């Protein structure tokens, strides 16, 4: 089969790109391994909520029309929302069509699936950056009696054994799971490395409102000071619960969660914990205060009135956090590895991966492989690239690049004739 | 973030441009980033020994300090020793102090903050019943280290705190002390 562009993945990124390609009259197909919003449907835990308020899921041609702009979507609501968007976009969609390989041909690409093979000029990888939750290598040394699971396998606290739970990692996922597991009566120990502290509301407005209004979410990848760092930063410690509660370390400590240092090793059935807890908390507090300073400055310059600035108290760290954890003695029955995700490119037969398995790209344009594009990754083109709200602007930019490239080629072809 | 004062160039004696240049160069040559640090030690008498440091390996080749540096170590008289030099654990504190302080200078330079003076005191607690083998529950090493910096610089107290925090984050000795390291000791 032949088409101009193949979009792989029918989540928010693939659908937004389809909208833009249709707007530019570029013939294309969207290939999806399962159904629309497949990762949301099959690889996330049921209590997950969006971290962004309802108003902030603006997609091309699709804004919020409900009467509850400030609430946060639940997982079923998020899936239904993307289904509605899919009906609006009505892309040329092939579901249950898993891509098995993408390789270069003379002047384009060949995309192989179980339902046949497509020849095309351009391929957009809209498969996301959070495909594989991989526990660190040291997990191999965990004693055999302890259950281990990743956030992809996790369903709810009740499906865990009774007893203590060690959650490793304190980004949004680790902090959310620590919060709900502790509330289920299973005592949680949280291993904390470098993290990004946040507060759900500030001066009476949602943190995401400030990020949007100040322009911080629009900060571009070619303007940010240290892009590698910006792309590898852990996510905000935020959740979107109806009570707008914080899930920062102080909130978790108040629930009874025990904070320990980063998991540094496992020896003789015992965890070794880093002595750096105090400093990573200090770094996160300083970073949050710098962000709030920027917000205050912006509010003053723009005459935005909010409640008076009230700064969160510094993260409470006990005087001598433990440096080791004897799983048996501490009653740890389960370890949850909230240590991050990585993308799956096992089906990509184009040599564009760096040493860490990521695709080398310039704002989503894979310059080494003309016609290949990436969408939906952290800080792809903007700070908001990782949000549903950010993927539309990225899709607009990349579809313009794609269209220009196709145009340039047809001009070349005409000149050659 | 500290703002540079346009009229006064910041100079803490750290060549940050060279460090950023090295970062760029090593991106494309990760093998050159692999260093080996070395020391040799000779027993003198009793608890007194002398460690010498001169060669190391890095940037894909053997390297040498400008001179051979010697570090004597001994135990104090309260341990019934001759006190010819500082104890090894104090030398560990010296390593941490120097590493963090070098980091403060480098981070301040990168953030365009002029330092006027930097000093710190370090104190580490230890229950010597551990090394005397009197109680298995007491570790040999420090039960904690407290570092207190005094810094005079062209920056707000918050920016100074951020420089010190970043210095810990990037410090080799801080990492060596706060995280476990496999140690292999052989006799040839």
Question: How would you describe the overall organization of this protein?
Answer:
The complex is a heterodimer of chains A (417) and B (188). Chain A is of the alpha/beta class and 417 residues long. Chain A is built from ten helices and 22 strands. In chain A, the strands form seven sheets. Chain A has a five-stranded parallel β-sheet with strand order 5-2-1-9-22, with helices on one face. In chain A, strands 11-20-12-13-16 form a five-stranded parallel β-sheet. In chain A, a hairpin with a 2-residue loop joins β17 and β18. The model of chain A has no long low-confidence stretch (mean pLDDT 94). Chain B has 188 residues and is α+β, with helices and mostly antiparallel strands. Chain B folds into two domains: 17-86, GMP Synthetase, Chain A, domain 3; 87-178, K homology (KH) domain (GMP Synthetase, Chain A, domain 3), CATH 3.30.300. Helices cover 30% and strands 28% of the residues of chain B. Chain B has helices spanning 16-28, 88-110, 157-169, 172-178; strands at 36-37, 40-45, 48-58, 61-73, 115-125, 144-153. In chain B, strands 1, 2, 3 and 4 form a four-stranded antiparallel β-sheet that branches. A two-stranded antiparallel sheet of chain B has the order 5-6. In chain B, α2 packs across α3 (157-169) and α2 crosses α4. Chain B is globular and about 55 Å long. Residues 1-6 of chain B have low confidence and may be disordered. At the A-B interface, β17 and α8 of A face α3 and α4 of B.
